[in-house]
Amino acid sequence: SAGVELSVNNHAADFTLSTGLSPAISLSCLVHNSSQAEELLWYRGAGQVDLKDGNKVNISNICISPVNESDNGVTFTCRLARDKAVQVSVTLDVQFPPQLSGEETLQVEEEKDVTLTCNSRSNPQGQSTWLKDNQSLTLQQSHHKLYQTSEVFQLSISKVQKSDNGTYTCLVESRLGKGTRDFHLIVEDKKPVFPKEAVIAAVVVVTITILFGIVAQKDKFLKVW
Fold this sequence. Notes:
Layout: E1 5-8, E2 15-20, E3 25-32, E4 40-44, E5 47-48, E6 59-64, E7 75-80, E8 83-101, E9 105-109, E10 114-123, E11 127-132, E12 135-136, E13 144-148, E14 152-157, E15 166-174, E16 177-188, H1 196-216, H2 218-224
Parallel strand pairs: 2-8, 9-16
Antiparallel strand pairs: 1-3, 3-6, 4-5, 4-7, 7-8, 8-10, 10-14, 11-12, 11-15, 13-14, 15-16
């Protein structure tokens, strides 16, 4: 295979193909500098793509249809069948506006902690912020805490109060658009705490009292018997 080269979409070296969400894109692999018929192989990541018989020799085309978010970052590689070291790879850079998800309604007891989790996917990554009842949320250092990764944006509220009731909106904006997700937080009345320790202590006292009463009346019980 000395001197044999491949190209994908006229690129003789590995490259990145930027695209948006689209119905389809095609990749064409072509053999160069070969005097014989060369079989070609296509891979999506580590998995081999199934090609039809008429689409394997000297030139081979594959179609990605439709192009969606799951294709972002995926690498397609064309290889020479008899020498897999001869190859060209293309990595898809699929750009799309923010797409958000997360649990819409959360109910929490007063004075308990709660976390609102906004799952966010976008390429390029967007800027995130929280609103409360359509107004910018004023963060209180000891009451609110933010956590963010490339795909998760969380708002934690410590010891919620009735004033925390309301609709919280996760807003993510990028140059391709914006996405919003509403979270309805319902703060319920604090349930009365069952005095478990006091009840246990009372049971112990009653039990001991009964035992002492039985011991004190032991002679009378024996006479009756």
